[in-house]
Amino acid sequence: MNYPVLRHSALAKASRTVPYLLPQEVTGLVEAVKETRQGQRDGLLIRVLFQTGLRISEALSLTPSHIQKFEGKSILSIIGKGRKPRLVAIPERLVDRLKGYAFEAKLSPQDPFFAFKRLRGWQIIKKASLNAGFNKRVFPHLLRHSDAIERLRQTGNPKALQLHLGHSSMAMTMRYLSTLTAEDALRVQGEVTFEE
After folding, report:
1. Which of 105-109, 129-133, 144-148, 186-190 has the lowest mean pLDDT?
2. Which residues partner with 89 through β-bridges?
3. Listing from the earlier edge strand, what are the strands of the sheet with 85-89?
4. Which of 16, 18, 4 is nearest to 165 (CA)?
5. CATH code, domain with 172
6. Of 193 and 147, the one with more pLDDT
7. Which of 43, 121, 173, 187 has the fewest CB atoms lying closer than 10 Å?
8. Burial of 83 (0-12, 13-18, 19+ CB in 10 A)
9. Is residue 195 part of a domain?
10. 125 compared with 165, residue with greater pLDDT
11. Cβ(80)–Cβ(166) under 8 Å?
12. Parent domain of 55
């Protein structure tokens, strides 16, 4: 019996190793765009992709009105892939940077932070990686992978990560588990407390 090859299924994708950048490498990308003409904006794009795990299309549609509060913390309320509404965690420091940029650029609540097309976003990331001297291929979705792995390392919670990323299949989220080390697992487990 011949079985079809599962090239693009969630199962096939879940079995592949996920490439990613370390937080210090992302910092290197941000530093590499600082002195460019649109350095502040381009650095914000890199930070948004890494610190929120948004897809490039989601990041490019981001406006000041997407920043909201939930239980006293800032979140992004977006329409994600498949036109599904999603709430995304965002660090307060990044919110402050985005709001400062919106004020300086005189953006209205409905104006996008990044008023350009996906191709330009790819070009910004590629140029930043060249300027930073990276030998590996760097692309916008790599920053999403990097966010996912960093969140999983810090929380050890794949279900929360699935909701954060907007994955419809847990198999897509579970592929990030292969990047965790025994030290990561011990650290996460060590944070569990029991009342006596």
Report:
1. 186-190
2. 75
3. 67-70, 73-79, 85-89
4. 18
5. 1.10.443.10
6. 147
7. 187
8. exposed
9. no
10. 125
11. yes
12. 10-186
Better pLDDT: 115 or 180: 115
Residue 3 placed within a domain: no
Give the integer Cα–Cα distance in Å for 194 and 171: 30
Give yes or no for residue 9 having a pLDDT over 60.
Answer: no
Q: How far is CA 72 from CA 18, 65, 183, in A?
A: 33, 17, 32
Residue 174 has pLDDT above 90, yes or no: no
**For the chain, the helix, strand and coil percentages under 3-state DSSP, each to the nearest 5:** 55, 10, 35
Average pLDDT, the chain: 88
Amino acid at 56: I
Instruction: Considering only residues 12 and 121, tell me which one the structure prediction assigns the higher pLDDT.
Output: 121
Answer for the pair 65, 110: CB distance below 8 angstroms, yes or no.
Answer: yes
Cα 80 from Cα 184, distance rounded (Å): 30
The alpha carbon torsion through 162, 163, 166, 172 (nearest 10 deg) reads: 10
Structure tokens at 99: 């709001």
Q: How many domains does the chain have?
A: 1
Residue 133 domain-assigned (yes or no)? yes
Which CA distances in Å does 104 have to 33, 60, 96, 97, 110?
18, 18, 12, 11, 15
